[in-house]
Amino acid sequence: MSEKNKGRIRRSRRTRLKIAEQKITRLLVYRSNKNMYAQITGEGAKVLVAASTLDPAVKKNVPKGGNIEAAALVGKLVGEKAMTAGLTKVAFDRSGYNYHGRVKALAEAAREAGLKF
Question: CA 109 → CA 23, 72, 83, 84, 87, distances in Å?
């Protein structure tokens, strides 16, 4: 494991502990070089809503999943799914990634879809 990834995991652990104290549902983001993933988890890490660039609705609009445009579509999709599931308030868990680029695009699109965090 690289030093860069160790630092990201350390930062994500600190965030997750803080969110666990608050006992609130969280919007979890994971990014790889090729794809973006977003999940909303509840108590006991139960996945309530999920979306990714591998979903057919996103994949047909954006063939390459590792860019800002695809991340924005994932954010919009997860926000819409959350609203239909009755979730409005979540804590944003960026998994130690910087709030920049794809992570920022996903967060802003989820906010526009109606999520509050």
Answer: 24, 5, 13, 16, 16
Q: Tell me how far CA of residue 82 lies from CA of 5, 14, 15, 68, 78, in angstroms.
A: 30, 25, 22, 21, 6
Question: 3-112 has which CATH code?
Answer: 3.30.420.100
Query: In this structure, are residues 73 and 108 in contact, taking their beta carbons and an 8 Å threshold?
Result: no
Q: Report which of 30, 101, 34 is spatially closest to residue 66, judged by C-alpha positions.
A: 34
What is residue 116's predicted lDDT score, i.e. its pLDDT?
A: 96
> What would the two tokens of residue 66 be?
């590792």
pTM of this structure: 0.93
Do 20 and 91 contact (CB within 8 A), yes or no?
Answer: no
